[in-house]
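Progress report, Aim 2. The chain analyzed during this reporting quarter is listed below.
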Amino acid sequence: MLFPIARAFFLVLPILVACSGKVDVDHTSTSTGGGGQGGSGGAGGAGGSGDCPAELPVAGAPCDVPENQPCSYGECCPQMFTCEAGSWVETLVACEAPLPCPASPPLDGAACAGPCGQTSPCTYACEAGGASFTVTCGDDNLWHSDMPTLCQGAMTCGDMLQCLEGYICVTKQAFVATYECALDPCGPEPLSCACAESLCGDSFACIQASGKNVLCECPNCK
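Predicted structure tokens for the chain:
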């Protein structure tokens, strides 16, 4: 079984930019999935561009950059300032939380949401009491594992996940295919749609179930 151990974007109306969700203003978030335990999205350092000062301005302090020129400080969830009537004004932003660590270990080289959009690193164990390994979402938007081989008894699930011993791969085919690992609901009996139908959820039907794979299709998505 899986034993998890243990940055997403920001909104500046009307501008949409990536961020880590680590702010103290108008915070909004969406929740997707659960998963292993991990760190927070990248923070990024302060810095200006063009006529913007290199150091983070102080709201209300005098400024002499062009009126309403945005100045951004930080990489993932930057603080935004504009110079209005000769004084710095901080623009209110709302940052969403980064995606949580996947419930099952992502494969080495699988796509991720980037350092700002994905909680990382994420740490997992192949088995209870076993040695842990860590996967990190890199600047190349790919997962990088310090143990690139599969855990013993694990299997690949699509091109994204590895399902550990006792888990099966559930593929949901609609307009695109999604993958997830789930506990085998049929054991010790052979896997079949009769006992695995519930894994497909609403709007999907179990088309095939054998070995360690369940295929679910959306009849109304064709």
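The mean pLDDT is 81. The longest strand covers residues 167-173. These observations will guide the mutagenesis work planned for the next reporting period.
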